[in-house]
Each structure stands twice: as C-alpha cells, then as structure tokens.
C-alpha cells in the first residue's frame, strides 16, 4: 500500500494521519497520486472526519517528487499523464476543504514541496532535510497554480529564487521565507505541534471552516482547469520532454544532466 491510514480521536470527531510509504524515496507516480486524491475525497465526504495530517515514517524523504524510474519507463506520448498528475493532485489538495496539516520530516523536493504548500499548516523538521520547487532544474516549467500558491505564503522577496532557481531550503531557511510555518528539532515535537493544531481546528464549526477555506482558495480554485491546460501546452514546448528525460537519466546514473 502506498499510504498507511490511521484514524485518531480528536474533539468533535475523528482525524486521519496519512503516512507516505510509496517507495524508498516516497516518489510520485500517476497511480499513487490518484490514490491520494481518492483518499482525500473519501475523507472530504465523511462528516465524522474533521481533518488530516500528512506525514511519513521514512527518516530521509517526506516526498522526493516525481519517480525517475517510472518516467523513464513511460512512453513519450503518456508522459504528460504522469507529469501532469501532480497538477491534478495539487488541485485535489487545495479543494480539500477540511484542515490539512503536513509534517515535513525529510526531503521535500518538487512534488513534495507542492504537497506541502497546498496544505493549510506546514511544519518542518529542523534537520538535514531540504524543501524546494526543483521543477525548473529538471527542465519543467513551474505550473501557474503552484506559483499562485507560493505567492500566498512566501515573502515576495524570495519568489524569484523559489520559482526560477529552484532553490532548496533547510527548515530554518524555509520558515524565514514563509515556505513553512514552524520548525521543531525532532519528529516527536513536530507531531505534538501538528496534533495540537488539528485539535484546535476541530473545535471550529466545520461548516464555517470549510466555507471560509473555499473562499480563501477561491481565486486559485477558479483557475485550476485553465492551469491544467496551460501545463499541457508548456509540456509541448520544444526541448521540455527531452530535458526532463535527460534529467531523470542523469539522476539514475548519478551524474550532472546535459540540457539542450
């Protein structure tokens, strides 16, 4: 199973802790992204569930983005379905109108950073793990939906380095620029912070929380379909697919990519 689900008791109902266990780097494929979207929609429809914590027991990787092996084994005409899956998952995360909390206890690159910023509250381990939108560094244009969300939380002075350079940040650095909300020295402390926040949010009237969250994210949600179309168009630009495959091959071969 790609995800381990644990139901917990919280004030006024239940919560869920969803642990990522996709593979050794918790990397993303079209299928496991669809699986997570389905889980979130199931919880969204269950009135007894008041919120979700996303986490992992993997000590090194929270989520290391798109799976290189999977992309390299996918035919070129199907690549957009795999790569575009993160845009669709991002939409499901943003439309999940109950409390969504992320514990970043390891590296969160590319898709891992996307999942993080799509959450309402983001807590990161103050350790060796890094977080960053590394899409441009593997030849992928950063989707507009991700950029809109980055602008909602990151200090404007850092938009360029986050989006255009694919800069990666340790916990304290990520907190400084607004990419995460809080840091803690141990996974146990991260869990305490996350549970306390989930318990606090569960006391807010559910209808009010959900309506307000949908309004908060309303402008972004309204443009999701257009952003999906834009992503498909950007994928068709000359060199994008070749550069992506070169980046994935270089990652597999543990060398620097040579882009066109």
From TrEMBL:
Pfam families: ECH_1. GO terms for biological process: fatty acid beta-oxidation. Gene3D superfamilies: 2-enoyl-CoA Hydratase, Chain A, domain 1 (3.90.226.10). This is Enoyl-CoA hydratase/isomerase family protein. CDD domains: crotonase-like. Keywords: Isomerase. Belongs to the enoyl-CoA hydratase/isomerase family. GO terms for molecular function: isomerase activity. It comes from Leptospira bourretii. PROSITE patterns: ENOYL_COA_HYDRATASE. SUPFAM superfamilies: ClpP/crotonase.
């Amino acid at each position: 199973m790609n995800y381990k689900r644990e139901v917990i008791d919280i004030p006024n109902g239940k919560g869920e802790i969803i642990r990522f266990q996709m593979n050794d780097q918790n990397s993303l494929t079209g299928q496991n992204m669809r699986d997570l979207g389905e889980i979130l929609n199931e919880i969204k429809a269950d009135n007894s569930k008041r919120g979700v914590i996303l986490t992992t027991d993997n000590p090194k990787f929270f989520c290391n983005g798109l799976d290189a092996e999977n992309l390299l084994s996918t035919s070129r005409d199907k690549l957009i379905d795999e790569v575009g899956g993160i845009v669709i998952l991002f939409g499901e995360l943003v439309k999940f109108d109950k409390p969504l909390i992320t514990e970043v206890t390891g590296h969160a690159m590319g898709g891992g950073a996307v999942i993080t910023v799509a959450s309402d509250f983001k807590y990161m381990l103050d350790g060796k793990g890094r977080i960053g939108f590394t899409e441009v560094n593997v030849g992928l244009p950063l989707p507009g939906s991700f950029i809109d969300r980055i602008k909602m939380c990151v200090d404007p002075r850092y938009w360029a380095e986050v989006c255009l350079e694919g800069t990666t940040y340790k916990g304290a650095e990520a907190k400084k620029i607004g990419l995460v909300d809080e840091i803690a020295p141990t996974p146990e402390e991260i869990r305490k912070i996350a549970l306390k926040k989930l318990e606090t949010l569960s006391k807010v009237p559910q209808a009010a929380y959900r309506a307000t969250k949908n309004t908060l994210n309303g402008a972004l949600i309204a443009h999701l379909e257009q952003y999906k179309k834009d992503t498909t168009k950007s994928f068709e630009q000359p060199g994008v697919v070749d550069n992506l495959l070169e980046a994935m091959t270089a990652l597999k071969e543990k060398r620097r990519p040579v882009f066109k």
